[in-house]
Amino acid sequence: LKMSWFWLYLPFHLLMATCLCHSIKAPTTSSQQSFKTDLFNFYHSLILADGKETTVHLLKDIPKRYYFALEEGRVLAPFSVTVTPCDVPIEWSILVYKSPPGFPGKATPGDHDTQEVSKSQKAPSMVSTIFNYKGNSVETYMGMSSHSALYLLEFLSTERDTHVTVYLTTDTTSGHLYPELPMDPRIDVIGIGHTTVTLTWKHSPSVLQHRESIQYCLLVNEKHNYKSLCAAETAIRSSGMKLPPTLALSLSPYLLEPQQVMILSNSELSIINKVSSGEVRQVCVGTRNTYTVPNLSPSTQYYFDVFIVNLLTNASAAYTGTFARTLEEPEPKVTELKDGKVIHVVLDGKKQKFYSLQYQARHKKIHFTFQLCQGQIRVHITRNGKTVASENLSGLRYLSLKGKLLDTYLVQLRSTEESNSSVNVQASPHFHKPLFPLLPESLKIKSFSKLRTCRSVTIAWLGTQEESKYCVYRKRIEEDEIWRELQSADRCSGPESRRKSEKVLCKYFYDLNLQRAVTTETIKGLEAGTFYLFDVYLFGPSGIPVRYHSKVVKTRKKC
């Protein structure tokens, strides 16, 4: 019963070949065995669909076979087979099985007894290989098919398990599944910058015919070019992540993996895959044939592939990939430091670039002074190319370094936060003539809650063993302004930036006993229930002030 059903559904051409196996007497055992082996291949093959892309999964060293034949009634017709390897190189072949003259069902005039064949007559050759390829490029075979012939496609992967896509069509008049490439499918590099590369390519004829259903997608990576879209997808998956089903069509935020970042800018949808071998960036740019790739790293080689994608069929074709190396980052501008001169440096937190200062020593011992004005800054100092200091700055910082005459020091400064930062820098061999005054252990201002009234506030601050001048300033502020005022305060600015009406008093004091080097001051004439910002400025011998940390105090509402 099972065999009856088998013969019922066996395709016509395979049935003819099977009948032939039973009707022709082979002269030798070896030729008979070979022919039976060929037919066995058909029994263990699959039918290849016409006009549809088929995905074929291959196991290492195990061949896989598909067959196809023309519809009845057509004598000769063109056909094409396109195979796209999606990973490693594969081997694939097309074999044709032709029916010999005089086989059952195809009797010729004068043949009355087709079952009787002379024992000396040899069976004609029925199988031949018409195409063979080994590699990982997209290949297309075009030929003419006969209704009396069967075609067998055989695939083999000798490196590892993989998959390919196969497209067979016998209808060459109703268009193509794959978008067409131009006569010159190369990608041209027309501009290279430190962080950008500009590309252009010739338009696909498919764009001109089907503009609404065609788009270009660009893939950027640091490893190598890809010969097909499915090869690119496979490579990204093998890096340990899942990709959306189709690179060009499934760029959906709902399908993104944790290692993927989606960027939507100026109607462009980009996906950046964070893989172990670097970034793999995918950008679909519509029907534009010129694109500038942004946000690249300087002095890095990148590989660029462009795919023309049919949005209706998911089919794609690959341009010939190219590569380019971004320009080296220019040497940062270096400012010369002169003995005793103060340089004010403002750093852009968004660009995160180093600001460089250079100093050539005229003495063995050098003293660097850093006064942090705003934000957070990291300093890195090298002497003749070797690192001698690297740290985050806080307040006022002195660094004493000992080397040789004519040593070259390079001071590099960088903001460690997104907002702008600023710092004053000085280099000098004369530490006994300090630019800034001697500082107390703490620059905090303390207020006494129990001494607050509706009209006055008492504050205190530490002094030093050196007689110095201290000036107190006050400023009325609103409650919602407190955080902004404290965050934006420039600790390097002096009293010259303040209004005269804000000045409270100036006084001199010191104490040789640091335990008693504390002074207090009661500020009167204030309004009840009001916030005030208090600042104290310390002046040294050079006249450059140091600003204590601002203090906000609210007077009592009722007394």
TrEMBL record:
| UniProt keyword list | Glycoprotein, Neurogenesis, Repeat, Secreted, Signal
Its annotated compartments are: Secreted
Q: Which GO terms describe its biological process?
A: nervous system development
Q: Which InterPro entries match?
A: FN3_dom, FN3_sf, Ig-like_fold, NDNF, NDNF_C, NDNF_Fn(III)_1, NDNF_N
Gene symbol here is Ndnf_0
Can you give the residue ranges of the Fibronectin type-III domain? 179-316, 437-545
What does the function comment of this entry state? Secretory protein that plays a role in various cellular processes. Acts as a chemorepellent acting on gonadotropin-releasing hormone (GnRH) expressing neurons regulating their migration to the hypothalamus. Also promotes neuron migration, growth and survival as well as neurite outgrowth and is involved in the development of the olfactory system. May also act through the regulation of growth factors activity and downstream signaling. Also regulates extracellular matrix assembly and cell adhesiveness.
Name-wise, this protein is: Protein NDNF
SUPFAM superfamilies xref list: Fibronectin type III
Q: Where is the signal peptide?
A: 1-21
List GO terms (cellular component aspect). extracellular region
Q: Which GO terms describe its molecular function?
A: heparin binding
